[in-house]
């Protein structure tokens, strides 16, 4: 007699779903190798235990991903009686990489190479094991390289392993290059015609000539993120030597420079740039070619700036006057807050503005942006008495307050008299305002109710304007001050 279980196993639904077949084993070897290539190499090699057919599939994967932190997690103990030491883990990882590189059948067809290495291990063996076995050249099909040497103390010593071979800088198919904690020695020849994305983090011993050669050797580069370790202001000012970088990047759209203090003068030609992000840049930044960028969408300038920046700040503002979004922390504009003999350029396309400045600078920006739609004002405590010394009520009303400004957000509102007058003025003359959000710091909790009631009772120039008051901390993203 046929049981219900047997009938279920023979059901058409079960056959249609293919549950009686091993669909994975029916795939060709090429597809199986492609599938397991998305695993970290440690786990891809581990598929060899699945059967005789799987034994050599990993040797043809198109991606190699070496991560010694994963290796350490997978090998917690050598035996029941003796735990594995850091040295054991390190040498085991090195032997594993040696085996993979020696048994791989087609290194020239690799698409992606990733090496994440946590420092703090003995280097007597590991200094030589990787790059000497990577016998690749400009004919390699590598499209992405991700190398990360993570030091326990944030910087770490420099070892031969950090120096990349010259063939890295002549890979014609390379599209993405991410280097973290390496020594950047580009050599005399750099040619990466298909490079689209370049990320340099904590690079060691970089100079303007090498970096300029690398950037200029990437004619198709679209995104560049350049970042080094932190340098104090006094260390920068004590530097006597000057380091200049010159590069032409016709396709560059996104540029981020963070704490790149080893370069004192930047001269970049980037007519297609759309997004510019600067954080703690102690350097003179000059854009060559067109004085205004026709495609510029957003500019963010955060953190401290050097004395050199003060000399070219207004010229820089003129160059970015086509931007649609601007975000400035208080340090970059600090030099303008003590001056009255300057004029800001017109920002005809500006729709979103975020500033941490006093009332005088704010009024100048509002007057220069006739089409502004959204405004964020950061009442930073570091401004000291500058807001009290200024008269917050201007003699004339900026055009944007009468025709386009619909949303205002005020951050870190302390409730001092000058701040109240500024909010009252914006509410009174804002003819098309729809929403005003005021964020009061939590430390002003006992006064929150009083401040909220006061702000909501202020007269408004727009009947549709809604005032919302929040009891929460919300600060400008300015962690590198």
TrEMBL record:
Domain F-box, residue spans: 21-69
Recorded coiled-coil stretches: none
InterPro entries: F-box-like_dom_sf, F-box_AtFBL13-like, F-box_dom, FBD, FBL13/AtMIF1-like, LRR_dom_sf, LRR_FXL15/At3g58940/PEG3-like
CDD domains for the chain: F-box_AtFBL13-like (cd22160)
Gene3D superfamilies listed in its UniProt record: Ribonuclease Inhibitor
Protein name from the UniProt record: F-box domain-containing protein
């Amino acid at each position: 007699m046929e049981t219900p279980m047997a009938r279920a196993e023979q059901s058409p639904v079960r056959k249609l779903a293919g549950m009686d077949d091993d669909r994975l084993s029916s795939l060709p070897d090429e597809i199986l190798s492609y599938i397991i290539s998305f695993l970290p190499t440690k786990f891809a090699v581990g598929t060899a235990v699945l059967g005789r057919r799987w034994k050599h599939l990993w040797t043809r994967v198109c991606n190699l991903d070496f991560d010694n932190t994963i290796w350490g997690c997978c090998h917690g103990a050598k035996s029941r009686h003796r735990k594995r030491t850091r040295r054991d883990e390190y040498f085991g990882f090195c032997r594993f990489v040696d085996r993979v590189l020696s048994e791989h059948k087609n290194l020239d067809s690799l698409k992606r190479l990733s090496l994440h290495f946590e420092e703090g291990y003995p280097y007597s063996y590991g200094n030589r094991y990787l790059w000497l076995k990577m016998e690749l050249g400009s004919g390699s099909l590598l499209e992405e390289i991700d190398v990360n040497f993570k030091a326990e103390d944030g910087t770490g010593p420099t070892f031969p392993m950090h120096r990349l071979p010259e063939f890295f800088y002549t890979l014609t198919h390379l599209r993405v290059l991410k280097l973290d904690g390496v020594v950047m020695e580009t050599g005399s020849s750099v040619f990466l015609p298909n490079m689209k994305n370049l990320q340099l983090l904590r690079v060691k011993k970089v100079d303007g000539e090498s970096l300029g050669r690398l950037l200029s050797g990437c004619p198709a580069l679209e995104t560049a993120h350049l970042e080094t370790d932190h340098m104090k202001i006094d260390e920068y000012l004590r530097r006597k030597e000057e380091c200049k970088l010159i590069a032409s990047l016709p396709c560059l759209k996104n540029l981020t420079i963070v704490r790149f203090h080893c370069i004192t003068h930047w001269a970049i030609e980037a007519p297609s740039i759309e997004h510019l992000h600067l954080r703690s840049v102690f350097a003179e930044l000059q854009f060559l070619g067109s004085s205004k960028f026709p495609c510029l969408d957003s500019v963010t300038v955060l953190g401290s700036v050097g004395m050199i920046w003060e000399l070219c700040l207004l010229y820089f503002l003129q160059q970015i006057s086509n931007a649609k979004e601007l975000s400035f922390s208080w340090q970059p504009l600090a030099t303008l807050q003590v001056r009255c003999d300057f004029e800001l350029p017109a920002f005809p396309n500006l729709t979103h503005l975020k500033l941490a400045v006093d009332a005088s600078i704010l009024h100048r920006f509002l007057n220069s942006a006739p089409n502004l739609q959204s405004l964020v004002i950061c009442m930073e405590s570091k401004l000291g008495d500058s807001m009290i010394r200024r008269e917050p009520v201007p003699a004339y009303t900026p055009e944007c307050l009468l025709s386009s400004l619909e949303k205002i957000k005020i951050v870190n509102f302390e409730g001092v008299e000058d701040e109240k007058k500024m909010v009252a003025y914006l509410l009174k003359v804002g003819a098309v305002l729809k929403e005003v959000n005021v964020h009061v710091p939590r430390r002003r909790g006992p006064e929150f109710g009083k401040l909220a009631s006061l702000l909501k009772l202020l007269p408004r120039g727009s009947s549709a304007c809604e005032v919302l008051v929040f009891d929460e901390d919300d600060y400008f993203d300015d962690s590198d001050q």
